[in-house]
Amino acid sequence: MDNPALNIQLQTLPNQPGVYQYYDKEGTIIYVGKAKNLKKRVTSYFTKTHENGKTRVLVKKIANIKHIVVDTETDALLLENNLIKKHQPRYNVLLKDDKSYPWICIKKEHFPRVFSTRRIIKDGSEYFGPYTSVKTVYTLLDLIKGLYSLRTCNYHLSEEKIQAGKYKVCLEYHLGNCKGGCEGLETEQEYNESIKAIKEILKGNFKDSLSQFKTQMKEFAEQTKFEEAQKIKEKIDVLENYQAKSTIVNPKISNVDVFTIMSDESYGYINFLQLSYGSIIRSHTLEIKKKLDESDKALLELAITELRQRFNSNSKEIYVPFKVDIGEDIKVTVPQLGDKKHILDLSLRNAKYFRMDRFKQMKIVDPDRHANRIMAQMKADLRLSEEPRHIECFDNSNIQGTNPVAACVVFKNGKPSKKDYRHFNIKTVEGPDDFASMEEVVFRRYKRLIDEKQPLPHLIIIDGGKGQLSSAIKSLDALNLRGKIAIVGIAKRLEELFYPNDPIPLYLDKKSETLKIIQQLRNEAHRFGIEHHRNKRSKSALNTELETISGVGDKTIVELLKHFKSAKRISNAKLDELEAVVGVSRAEKIYNFYHEK
């Protein structure tokens, strides 16, 4: 290292947990990180050889290091998260959240009101949330309103003012939505029993409310108050219906946070489910843009800290797909089977669907970003040295050995470029020989591109197994292009990808976007080749028969086909119908040809 000041800073770093901050020569903070051991972690940046190019650039820009020692790893996680959000350093993942989420507030007052709000006022009121969907808030408030009679006015309902007769019941009382606490028709103690039950429902616990309602219903029925009993039964039905919809797993799973991650080359998608009494009371997916090729473990640890802090979670246990280091006070569980594994799989499905939705939106809003992501993914999946921005796929169409043709389709930035599609009639091969035909068309295609000084593709895909791939490689060898263009063969049966000089095929995930692009290329090449083959066969069949008639030339054949639409109709036409199209002389020749046959 050629920076003496940095060298001294590295030597004096403590072997303690903490947070380190890197600054550039302008004094701007460019990276924040956490460590169990500050000295080991920071020193590793300057002693290791980094594969990631951005990490190498970061290390070159470090001009000054500062650190903060903390007591525990948990403190380091929280401090790192807060510093990243505060300073947004260039080389840290982006943790942005400009949303003001809705909460359900139980106001600290006599006869507490229950309402939604986006502002938290520290006046002793209780807040439940935040909720990631306003719809969820309204659903819960409607449920509560249907179960309990609560006031909506903002009067100061102190005992003195109620006894002094300051207030009169309003329309809500006459509609049955409020029990008239303002006139002392309901005691504050009775009202607070409802508030206590509402708090339990907001925590996901429906058991106490259901039990209370069933007891009330039974009492009314025993007293032959059947109307009141029916009203309570309706409330039980509402509550049980809501519970059935919200209960996902074993009700014994309570006060647990679930986290899963789905990632690609550029982004990580972390889903968070919060469980209480077997019900999902919160679901949120966080999208994180990678900066230094961060691992899934690093992204998940950062996201867990951020999401628990953002949503005020105090759960003592978390379910995750692999072990993470997030402090000493939280139990980390990696479920393998049963209800716990089921909920983990559900969380992962949410992350996948969120990622798919983002891709669909990206296609519409930012097609360039979508193309960049697909290209980066294909480069990694297919082990290429560069992104396959220009791909060409070849397919032979050789049905029953007649009219052999081939097709070449072209994709640019992951999309069909139809103006660049090409058909080939096989010229040098006699009979059905797929291998020789492939060798011919590949040679002709790239000989022409070289002669015309056109850009060559980054990737060639051969529809076929090892045999077709070997034939194509012979042509690349003949043109001195071996090693200059990546080439793979795709076998139809198992979607195996073959590489030159590699006997073991590559199998891609059946749901991977790379395989979908390759399949689309292969299917498009097949469709394009078959279409040309069909046209050639039908034209050949027509021309062979009509051209054998003496005195009937190409123009006459075209006129006949325009009028009659097919060779069969020409053969069945009456003499006067033919005369109306091509005249008496030629009509007689055509009519006699078919009827003498």
Quick summary:
The chain is an alpha+beta fold and 597 residues long. It contains 20 helices and 19 strands.
Characterise the protein shown here:
With 597 residues, the protein is of the alpha+beta class. It has 20 helices and 19 strands. The strands form 4 sheets. Strands 12, 13, 14, 15, 16, 17, 18 and 19 form an 8-stranded mixed sheet that branches. α9 packs antiparallel against α10. The protein is flat, with a radius of gyration of 37 Å. The model has no long low-confidence stretch (mean pLDDT 80).
Write the layout of secondary structure elements.
Elements: H1 4-11, E1 18-23, E2 29-35, H2 38-47, H3 53-61, E3 64-69, H4 73-87, E4 103-106, E5 114-117, E6 126-128, H5 134-147, H6 159-163, H7 171-174, H8 188-202, H9 207-222, H10 226-246, E7 256-263, E8 267-276, E9 279-289, H11 296-310, E10 317-319, E11 331-333, H12 338-365, H13 367-381, E12 390-397, E13 405-412, E14 415-416, E15 422-425, H14 434-451, E16 459-463, H15 466-478, E17 486-491, E18 496-499, E19 502-507, H16 513-546, H17 554-564, H18 567-572, H19 575-582, H20 584-596
Parallel strand pairs: 7-10, 10-11, 12-16, 16-17
Antiparallel strand pairs: 1-2, 1-3, 4-5, 4-6, 7-8, 8-9, 12-13, 13-14, 13-15, 17-18, 18-19
